[in-house]
Specification:
binds uridine-5'-diphosphate; 13 helices; elongated; alpha/beta; eight-stranded mixed sheet; single chain; binds magnesium ion; 334 residues
Amino acid sequence: MLKLKALPADEIAPITLSVIVPLYNETEVLPVLHRRLTAVLDALPDRCEIVYVDDGSADDSHQLAQRLPRSSSDHLCLSLSRNFGKEAAMSAGLAYARGQAVILLDADLQDPPELIPEMLAKWRAGYDVVNMQRRRRLGESWFKRTSAAAYYRILNWLSDMPIPENVGDFRLLSRQVVDQLNALPERSRYMKGLFAWPGFRQVTLQFDRDPREAGQTKWNYPKLVGLAMDGITAFSIKPLRLATWTGLTIAISAFLYGAWVVAKTLIWGEPVAGYPSLMVAVLALGGVQLLAMGLLGEYLGRVYIETKGRPNYLVEEVVELPRSVLHRAKEVQQ
Ligand code: UDP
Ligand code: MG
């Protein structure tokens, strides 16, 4: 205990692990999450840090995060100036986390904090990224599961780099990877892809994803479609090439067909009719053109947003709550 007084707090032990928890209207689950998370972290011999990022909640998640019981971990409570979305909240967490290893955890306890020691063990074994893959998706509808599976298949077919299927944001990243991600200049942050992008030594562990503990999911299908488009456009330009190929195929077929129609008319004459085929051709071509234009628009829109260079999020407040002295003593004794 005497030794403790002589040492400034931060020199006692460097932060080994940061756990980032994005919060958006999570007052219902936050106390339960905090209890389970601190129970796991308290049992670890390492110095840990919890980074709560309040993503502009409409309820008092932010105030609640600051009032949670203190633990052996440092608590860092960030609050963004408005709701910027989970991807932005995670980026903010990554920018502020100080640990040598960083874990991203959902607040709703769908990602069990009890798996943290296992993830840390993999990191100690030399892995830079520990992906957590869902074995089963409990509490999710048949439609969500099948659409998710189809989406991963399409995404992986389109993207040049494998993006692991059924791996959410729950994962561990080494300091090296976090620094690389923080240094990326792009604003469109499709995290699932970005986490796979740096490469390094990756390992995947399996786990059963529980249903949400309490509260409501913040996702709806339009939001998910937006995220899905982000994923595809951020990691592939193949759809544009596909549009080119479709256009080329249609143009060549139209040319051949046109030549045939002209020749046929010249030789045998034309007894009119042809309304249905004309209609089908016009509608089909119109449809393909609009689709290709929409696709161009998706890419162009993202280029536009990137050129504006606005930050992904604005941090309104940072509150640092150091671990309690009682807990610090534990470290000195070791
Ligand atoms: N979240 C966030 N900002 C948002 C939406 C969600 O920070 O705009 C957080 C939310 O508080 C939770 C995590 O992201 O910690 C996952 O959200 P949710 O459980 O609603 O997503 P799902 O598990 O249904 O995909
Ligand atoms: Mg959830």
